[in-house]
Amino acid sequence: MPANLPPQYFETEKKLKTAKTAQERISIMEELLSIIPKHKGTEKMQAILKTKIAKLRSQSEKKPAAGQRGPTFTFEKTGAGQLVLIGPPNVGKSSLLKALTNATPDIGDYPFTTHSPSPAMMPYENIQIQLIDTPPITQDFMETWHAELIKSADGLLCVFDLASQNLQADLDRLLEKLEEKRIVFVSEDEQVVSDRTIHANRVLIVANKSDIPSIRSYFDTFDRTYEGLFDRIAVSSLNGEGLEELKKKIFLLLSILRVYSKTPGKKPDMKDPYIFAKGSSLMDMAKAVHKDFAQKLRFARIWNKEKYQGQKVHRDYILQDEDILELHI
Fold first, then answer.
1. β-pair partners for 325
2. In this structure, is residue 72 part of a structural domain?
3. What confidence tens digit (pLDDT) does each residue in 151-199 have?
4. Which residue, 237, 241, 207, 244, is CA-closest to 99?
5. Does the pTM exceed 0.85?
């Protein structure tokens, strides 16, 4: 299939001859990528450009010019929480993002298809959770801004390819690279404690491509090895296997809860919950609703699925997921 490149591609390509810095070349190549028509005939051309961009970024990271700064990416946290997808090349992170959200990222069977972070919103029951796809991490290459994005996230989805047949070695290599950046993993049950020397992130290990029956056994071995350390799940972004369970695990990883406000004599709004960290109290809810409730709260009536059906609770009550609260002052 012919590439059918538009005239502006060749005009932009001429700029490469006069580019003086690696960052200029990267910017021009990224512009070329945006111009290239996306179809079968240009896949190889796109792959070559993306590989060149990745090499230039790697070289810039190893030998930074004095006073030169690379690109930075920051994303305002929206929804109930923010998770970053990380992993080696060609594990299906972008396919997973597409399967979990309404996003349409570039997807290809060549390395570095994702060359910049891509945010999207994942619906879970009555809330939205922000997922950010990121470029792959290898032993030799990791974007300079990548570590800061990981540190600022509420949790990590660490995606691997079951077909690699050695999940444990893949995970070990990723852990070593992150440790260079002073980043470590903790499970959802552990307390996230960071200081000036180390940064801890909650993590969920996601083994993709479970739709291939012959390689499922590799996950079973991995699952037994890491039992009690990191939560893990096998999924298929191709046929949807395990994705609903994955969404639930993502919600649990965030360690959050949903609480609904009820006005006396009216039904609660179950579509727009307040979001709190686990361990929050009734007073946290009162402060979120209005300062008057925080100052004058006497008690609340509570409804939930466990045991409460309108009973009174006081200021020290610890909130539970999907509590319905009627505040009284």
1. 261, 302
2. no
3. 999 999 999 988 887 788 888 899 999 998 899 888 666 677 766 678 8
4. 237
5. no
Half-sphere exposure of 305 (CA within 13 A, CB side): 6
Q: Residue 28 belongs to what domain range?
A: 7-62
Q: What is the end-to-end Cα distance of the chain in Å, rounded?
A: 72
On whether both 117 and 212 belong to a single domain, the answer is yes
As given in the structure block, the two tokens for residue 175 are 């852990």
Residue 148 lies in a domain: yes
- Paired strand residues for 202: 186
